[in-house]
Amino acid sequence: MRIPVNRESKAPLFRQIELYLRQGIIAGSLAPSTRLPATRQLAAELGINRITVENAYAALEADGLVLTRVGSGTYVAGQEPDAPCPLEGGSPSWPLWQEGAQARMAAAQNGGPAGMLRAAGHPHPICFSAGISDSRLFPADDFRRALQAVMRRDGISALDYGECAGYAPLRSTIAHVLASQGLRTRAESILVTAGSQQAISLVSQLLLRPGDTILVESPTHAGALDLFRALGFQIVGIPVDEQGMETGRLEKLLQRRHPRLIYTIPNFHNPTGACLGGSRRRDLLALADRYNTPILEDDFVGDLRYDGRAQPALKALDPGGRVIHVGTFSKMLMPGLRIGFIVADGPVYDSLVGFKRVNDLATSTLIQRGLEAYVTVGRYQAHLRRCCRIFRQRRDAMAEAIDAHLPASVRVSPPHGGLFMWLRLPEGLSSVELLPLACAEGVDFAPGRAFFPDGAAGGDCMRLNFVLQSPEDIAEGIRRLGAAIGRLR
Ligand SMILES: Cc1ncc(COP(=O)(O)O)c(C=O)c1O
Description:
43% of the residues lie in helices and 12% in strands. The protein is of the alpha/beta class. The strands form 3 sheets. The chain has an 8-stranded mixed β-sheet with strand order 3-10-9-8-7-4-5-6, sandwiched between helices. The chain has a 4-stranded antiparallel β-sheet with strand order 11-12-14-13. It binds pyridoxal-5'-phosphate.
């Protein structure tokens, strides 16, 4: 155990060892039942007298933090200790620079309902707030078999760093999947990333500096807003209606605010579920081209369509190099894979690969190989079809339950795909005030404010995830939400 002891310090050595171990035990990094090194061994490692180590252990034992078992050794005690954890020199005092880091992230994180529902202690909580699909549908067994097959097939090479741009066969597979959706591209234009969050991060950091302006839909993906705030960008919002971004307002914003990047979610938008209309897609591309502004297209659930006509991806309409497209396997498959991708053409592609390299060298090659093995055998398409069938029923179940249990003045337009429904509460009601009442009833949702760049608009809005629960739980959850709205009124 490498305990840092300072022989110049006024604090006795036994006290330094005791404090180090005490902090580890209380913070949980030394788990209950962990065996501490034998006193003789630790004394030899630290080059100190064995009595010094024995004194440190004795002080910890006196406070019930460790137990000595005769003939066996000294172990971290299993119980939560009562004793406080003093830092050397008295009360905790972190270096000043830590405050700057804390303030920067505090400004970036707008929080959420996570934890509130659990804390309310309902025996059967129903979650509508999360941004993921139903983990009960994850193809875990198929993926385990794919991983095992890869380990047998590729051996050690499956555990290498791998190519920075991504495992070449997976990039070809992604190109085929995209082609089947009408976006023709090549493996050489694809960069595999750790989820699409990293893709958004790489693109925006490469194209913008702190203080630069980014144009986003208002509302938009809260995780992107958090990222852009953490990176110190000026965020300008453009309103969204049932047809997606209101491109009629775009030109003025481009002229006045000179954004360095337009971030958009054209399909089954997070949080509103809207799809950008065909003519608006063309307007967006034409304006972005006229004002020399790149577009970052986030297609996080483009495959999850339940009805209606598909629109071409912005990237598919791009004559070349104007749109950077990002996608992910998180929502269609499993978020824990952490596999997303960028499709980019022109010199920016190489810059992105270089930037990826300096950020994290490469995305896990083992997971990429497992994903490639899983997707190429066609199970992916079958899984997608199954998800779409189930999610369509759940969307319809939520729309029906809303009709049955929520006031008629709640406004909602069921989307043609994706994960979310966006609701507007009756005049004068606040979703922030509603949330604790809803949690007490045993249901939650994502309050609207988190999705707006100014953090103030959207107080009467909320986002409901309709793919996460069974139709029965959806009906019950919406009934509870209706009860909470009744109480709020
Ligand atoms: C619109 C959108 N884009 C990107 C992401 C990031 O997902 P991931 O990094 O898991 O691919 C999310 C996650 O919720 C999202 O909603």
